[in-house]
Amino acid sequence: xxxxxxxxxxxxxxxxxxxxxxxxxAPLEFLRWTWRQLTSMRTALILxxxxxxxxxPGSVVPQESVDPxxxxxxxxxxxxxxxxxxxxxxxxxxxxxxxxxxxxLLMISLVGCILPRTKVYWKAMRAxxxxxxxxxxxxxxxxxxxxxxxxxxxxxxxxxxxxxxxQDTTTDDAGGSVSxxxxxxxxAGNLLFHVSVVIVLVGFAFGSLLGFKGGVIVVxxxxxxxxxxxxxxxxxxxxxxxxxxxxxFFTVKDFDVTFIxxxxxxxxxxxxxxxxxxxxxxxxxxxxxxxxxxHPLKVDGTNVYLIGHGYAPVVTVRDAAGKKVFSGxxxxxxxxxxxxxxxxxxxxxxxxxxxxxxxxFYPTYxxxxxxxxxxxxxxxxxxxxxxxVYAGDLGLDSGVPQxxxxxxxxxxxxxxxxxxxxxxxxxxxxxxxxxxxQLGSITFDRVDKFVKLQISHNPGGWIALSGVVLALIxxxxxxxxxxxxxxxxxxxxxxxxxxxxxxxxxSAGGDLAxxxxxxxxxxxxxx
Amino acid sequence: MNHDQFGQLSNWSIVLAAVFYFAxxxxxxxxxxxxxxxxxxxxxxxxxxxxxxxxxxxxxxxxQVTAADRxxxxxxxxxxxxxxxxxxxxxxxxxxxxxxxxxxxIAVVSRGLAADxxxxxxxxxxxxxxxxxxxxxxxxxxxxxxxxxxxxxxIVTGFVLVVLMVDVLILYDPVVELRDAxxxxxxxxxxxxxxxxxxxxxxxxxxxxxxxxxxxxxxxHEGELPTRGYLARVPSLLQLDRFAYRTHAFAFPVWTFAxxxxxxxWAQAAWGRYWGxxxxxxxxxxxxxxxxxxxxxxxxxxxxxxAAAIVALIGLATLWFNFVGIxxxxxxxxxxSYA
Lengths: 527, 339
Ligand code: HEM
Hints:
The structure holds 2 protein chains of 2 kinds.
Chain A: H1 27-38, H2 41-55, H3 57-60, H4 68-77, H5 81-88, H6 97-126, E1 141-147, H7 151-161, E2 166-172, E3 175-182, H8 185-210, E4 212-219, E5 223-225, E6 233-236, E7 249-259, E8 269-279, E9 287-292, E10 297-299, E11 302-318, E12 324-329, E13 333-334, E14 341-347, E15 354-362, E16 365-368, E17 372-375, E18 384-392, E19 412-414, E20 424-428, E21 432-435, E22 440-457, H9 461-480, E23 484-493, E24 496-505, H10 513-526
Antiparallel strand pairs in A: 1-24, 2-3, 3-23, 4-6, 4-22, 5-7, 7-8, 8-9, 10-11, 11-12, 11-22, 13-14, 14-15, 15-18, 16-17, 18-19, 18-20, 21-22, 23-24
Helix pairs in contact in A: 2-6, 6-8, 7-10, 8-9
Chain B: H1 3-35, H2 49-56, H3 79-114, H4 125-143, H5 153-170, H6 185-220, H7 229-233, H8 237-271, H9 279-297, H10 306-330
Helix pairs in contact in B: 1-3, 1-5, 3-4, 4-5, 4-6, 6-8, 6-10, 8-9, 9-10
The structure holds protoporphyrin IX containing FE.
Protoporphyrin IX containing FE sits between chains A (10-11, 13-14, 39-41, 44, 106, 109-110, 113, 190, 194, 197, 478-479, 508) and B (292, 295-296, 299).
């Protein structure tokens, strides 16, 4: 057996064309050559690898569309890398030109592959089973026996045994043959699969053109009205218009969380939910609901999800005379699962210079010489703040929008004590610390909680999802339907009937030996 | 029994299961040791198709015949004795593995019953690894007869043993309730399909790895067949490739279902987006693409055989990386960082 292929000839469409060879120079020829290169199996394979590789950086570098706050933190910590990464689009890999280039090429290759294969398949669908090969013995599965039965009887029986196959029977003086083929749907399944991949992408595109996704952090007691200005981050599709935002409104009444107290998952937040009072539109009555991780608020085609939470210590800053210049909850973003949180307080007016505080919030403050300050548990059992103090110009008037989670330290100086050491204010709940240089004082009044909500509208989701379901159906057909051809040849020889049975499994993992044995046995037994 | 007792039962069964896996592993090693001295196959079933495979993958080495079909007729006399011993040890090892699998199953089920309220036992890495290895064993036992998997026995038992040891010693976690994000009916479907696919891909990867090892041996020995030792009992390249393909072809649609259908549906219910390029999702996607490439490679000239086997192993590496690596390296960066 010296076939060059592992499994006999490939199924209908696979490798329909020979290697295109070197590039020709004539423009038209060159175009045709390029097209053939692009739509070859090898190019598809390489593009698949490129796609896998191109997806990797998005799992390493924080992504704008996944967690914009982490992107900001990351940029703060990596000042040299940030501009380089920005130029490469590494903070939004999946919208970057190079990532798009790979999958667009893959899609072109895919369409260029589907069309000719559909044509080939269309013809194959209506073709008759191939005629008896000249030398059946060369096929991978092959059996021969002789019998006393008449050739017509054997052929007749073969016809019945091969029910479900498309058959052609020919007879002549010396005997006859049956050619049979089945499993035509495999290629249909394969084509359906590849078409569905395109459908999924269309669904994706549809969603990202018309949908939106936004995030907002709301402190308990606070409220949210659905308009652009209220979002902390907003990721609209290219064809989105703000008019699409439904005019709902809600207030976060309360937030409940329990933390696991034992086991390796100690400290993991567990069972959290927020109580919301909402109105679907201003003229609707107020209703109450609780949202939790798998149970969003669905209002007017838009969903509100609870995706995170944290602490918002409430502080009051007074000037040297004791007049209140700032008071309210300040959002501190959790830095890890212990809920050690980082935040800044900006006091733009009321004191001689603008003030900025930057530091950590510890829900259950603890300290050892080795570790320094840390939080022993994520619950707010012994809350404490520890912050550095800056004075000067917060840069709020520069016109450049500022993050509320970072200080612009360009025109700020760190406050130091008489010995020249930077001042840190360390506050337990209820404490007040007086700042040096007549800058006033700061009080830690209370701890509030905040919830991180995601609000989204996903119009194309179901298209993509149906695409994947169709893809799966096609895939099952493609992988498990085994296209096969079987031939039975019957010849009268020296007074006996010589029967040859042979088959060809055209699927990728196929082996027909068992079936051929069985068929031969059937024909032999009954003969 | 109350929940705590089920927890105890689970802990004891898993340890006992590991003991039986260990016994099975040792038995299979003894089986190979016993078979070492005797040619695996005196006659050698001529399959010949291995030739095409190596030639396809670009080797100029003429591989004449590749065969170690243990089912084929063998030479008579003294070899018979050894063969009988080998067969006996193989059967013992198989039965030990069946017992181990039964204990393993008890451990998984009682782990679920140990939680209050009763839940599916796939809430954390410990439980995930425990269930995935069970799938590997069950897959191996189920296919043992059909594919004459004696050659896979030491690898499967050894692998499951090592993973269970790591699982029990390092990843162990007392029973707790499911985290909020996991409390959804989609979880059950999503995670069990991911686990089944992981088990099947792992089994397929073992065959692909053996393919590469055997292929290398054949190249080094200019196509001469191994007559002694383990490799002689590993089936032909053609059969290895076919077994690998069948397991992958089973696993791939299951993975598609897990990663690209139930995963997004669950994510939509939990986080408000079908697909968010969270690190776990990114790597599930990478795995999917690499395995799609594997299926392509098997149908592409110049990629059949060796290259396809390498692609399959890359796929397996990305799969495991997603399970182990993401949790340790990316930690809280992923919304999925529990399992
Ligand atoms: C988005 C990219 C693609 C993905 C995810 C993909 C995925 C797959 C998968 C999973 C299979 C296995 C099904 C089977 O073996 O029957 C397959 C088979 C196949 N693909 Fe693709 N494919 C892609 C693009 C392409 C392109 C661009 C071509 C054309 C060059 C192509 C041609 C084929 C062919 C001919 C088969 C059948 C192979 C066989 O007979 O086993 N695919 N594809």
